[in-house]
Amino acid sequence: MSDENTGSTGEIQLDNGVFRVTRWTIQPNGVIPMHKHEYEYVVIPMVTDAMHVRNSDGTSIVADLEAGVSYTRAAGSEHEVSNPDGTDDIVFVEVERL
Amino acid sequence: MSDENTGSTGEIQLDNGVFRVTRWTIQPNGVIPMHKHEYEYVVIPMVTDAMHVRNSDGTSIVADLEAGVSYTRAAGSEHEVSNPDGTDDIVFVEVERL
């Protein structure tokens, strides 16, 4: 999944019925558009950077990513994530528990 | 879990009954001693390097890790992993599906 319009790329590395693993890249000023997570998941940042998260309820946060420091989110999370002030790509690996 | 004798460190970042996420660091000439995996898991390398894997059946391979390129292994895998020729730490994040 690569989308010049959004400036983000999702490369599925594994989808075996147990895990789905996607490596996401958000270019400077890119966005992964609003989406809802069907499965509980873990994010492993590959970079240390600030990623902007706008939730479907309108609230926003800045997620301070740290390379190698994971975090988890529940199924049902619905948000858009972006790299508005970025000078570098934001890259993270998402592991979903199918 | 940090062990000066083995030269490896396992930092559990999450253990919530759904996932267990551990960040492993193997120093140059360090080893994570022989262990058996109870759960299916995914590895996300944080570095690009060669990691030596000795299986419990005596076979050995060199796993060419690439930063951000994940791989999965089945429950029951039993091996020792080491960094024998290393000049740098080998670091990876392991996500187990509990």
TrEMBL record, chains A, B:
Q: Which SUPFAM superfamilies match?
A: RmlC-like cupins
Gene3D superfamilies the UniProt entry points to: Jelly Rolls
* Name of the molecule in the record: Cupin domain-containing protein
Please give the organism: Brevibacterium sandarakinum
